[in-house]
Amino acid sequence: MQPLPFGRLAARLPVLAFLLLSLLLSAPPAPAQDTAELLPVTEAYKLSADATTPGVLKLHWTIAPDYYLYRGRMKFKGGDGVTLGEAQLPDGEKFHDEYLGDVETYHHGVDASIPYTVAAGTTRLTLSVQYQGCHEVDPKICYPPHTEKLDLPLPTRTDATAAAGNALGAALGRLGSSAGGGSVGAPLPAEQAFRFEALAQGPQQLLLRWTMPKGYYLYRDQTTLKLADAAGLTLKPAWPAGTAHHDEHFGDVVVYFDQVELPVTVEGDLAGRQRLTLQASFQGCQDGGLCYPLMTRAVDIDLNSGAVASRAVAAEPPPAELAGGPLQVSLVAALLLALGGGLVLNLMPCVLPVLSIKAVSVLESGENRATARRHALFYTAGVLCSFTALGLGILALRAAGHALGWGSQLQQPLLVGALACVMLAVGLSMSGVVQFGASLGNTGASLASRSGPAGDFFTGVLAVVVASPCTAPFMGSALAYAFAAPMLSALLVFVALGLGLALPFLAVGFVPALARLLPKPGRWMETLKQVLAFPMYLTAAWLVWVLANQRGADAVGLVLVAMVLLAMTLWWFERSRTRGVASRIAVAVLALATLAPMYLLAHVPPPSAAAATEQGVVAYSPQKLAELRAAGTPVFVDMTADWCVTCKANEHAVLNTQAFRDLLERTGAVYMKGDWTDVDPDISAFLAQYHSPGVPLYVVFPRNGGPGRQLSTVLTPSMVEQALTAAAR
Description:
With 729 residues, this protein is of the alpha+beta class. It has 4 domains: 6-33 and 327-601, no CATH class; 39-174, Thiol:disulfide interchange protein DsbD, N-terminal domain (Immunoglobulin-like, Sandwich), CATH 2.60.40; 195-291, Thiol:disulfide interchange protein DsbD, N-terminal domain (Immunoglobulin-like), CATH 2.60.40.1250; 617-727, Glutaredoxin. The chain is built from 22 helices and 28 strands. The protein has a 5-stranded mixed β-sheet with strand order 24-26-25-27-28, with helices on both faces. The longest helix is centred in the C-terminal third of the chain and has 43 residues, at 533-575. The chain starts with 8 loop residues before the first helix and ends with a helix.
């Protein structure tokens, strides 16, 4: 039987394509922001009732960890014919609450006993129970007062035991009915739920704007405005008509949904002032969900230019031009940017090794136009299917509240180790250790019959997987659009990226003039194939280096053992072609042995976070950034990852140069770096704040406390110098 060419490598390994996609989409997602973990109120505080004792109702709350109930916020009201006595509650833990003063709280659980009497003819024990509690760790959010209505059968003194089961069942069946009603989604962080902007429309006229997502509202009468260091000046707001709302806590109030714009007149003599510092304190709620504690945002307003800069850096949204989100880019523009980004992606170093496989198969096709078209179509199908699957996976996980971005699948050590092994296997095949096909130098009439559609498809899959660490020019805006757009529009952007990546090979396959520019097939191609094996080995080495930064030396040792066992498996597989069944069983045993270190790799914990910081670099944290900004220090924030090839290129060309260090010293700026090689919720939140689909992200914060300026994903020395010089003024 005539051996098959290298172009059918994946025809013998089609399962690798599905394995890679499975690993890509089934890898555990990065943890979502903390607010997604908040429990519904009835799960945070599970209430049960026991009315088996005549004249006494016993209530019990089971309180989840990290939650507490206020003693003073418990209220009990009897229904028709029911008169309640004073509730008997144990003493709680005493502490001073920032908003409620001296309070008592309960953790873990609490019991209450309520004496009651009923009027003649009353057959049911009905009452309402109101309580309020908070989540005591980040995000520190308090629930609104929650009311549950209980409807229990009255026990008889002669059959109290039998009535107990009915009472408890009735109580449990009634739990969960509150004034808000209905179920609500997980609450957003405060800075996303209530976006605040301010600008000057004139020397003495300001415009304040709050923007809330659907289902959130702002209280009018819980909002206060004041100017800092502005004696003699007062603010006169002109509130627009709002929505009348009955609130269980504040009574009849006026609230605003979606967005509210508030004109504010500055009364008094400005005396030549150029800037004002406005402090706005406000409170709002998720309809039927949580009420947020009082929020305070401080903004600096330039009375001449109208610019506004927030002082609450760690909690504020991006500057006004970004507040509208990435959907300010039209769908057509996003598709064109995605097509261009995918096209440029062919030139990125992370994709070039895999493209060498495709280049060899294209050269194999020679003058056979049908074969060239088949290569192009199946490769394109692999690329488009992979981009679609990747897009669906990312969008589905993000819709579920998980923090997932472009390239973040390489935060999963198991996938990184598996890719390193795949690159090694491809390199060994190209070097001739194992042959999945005949010499590439053979030409002739049988060329067309030796083309493998599965191999072309698999090459497309592999190209997409290894392309994820790269962010080509034009891709940033397109991906940001995709992560915020409706599902169909987002998928079109991912398809356009894939089409751009596959476009060069489609052109060669379907444009004869381009195909004639390719060199003629010959025996020299065997040497070319072996030379192209070395980029594969380098890619495998790079992936092992990424793994070392994610999980340390233990993970590197495991993946190296797996790679040695894989090499042994392929070597013995080649020798077993002419041997008996025992040799083939040995191949299977070696293949299974290769999986053992990969299983152990998936369970290696991250190394301790005591890594030394680079000289002159400050590790990112929201608190440290806020401290630097409050001190009036310009800050250059660099969000990067070891698997991000674009990040490393920028570091080599700009950020790790003496010129950049001199620029930092000259401007007095601090270089702050966030490492997203592994999962980090703080960095994920920062990326989301700037609508960035992944890394790299560069933001320059100015000395005067103004909004951060987001730079391009591809840096130049002049761009960085201009941004830092402006920030230092």
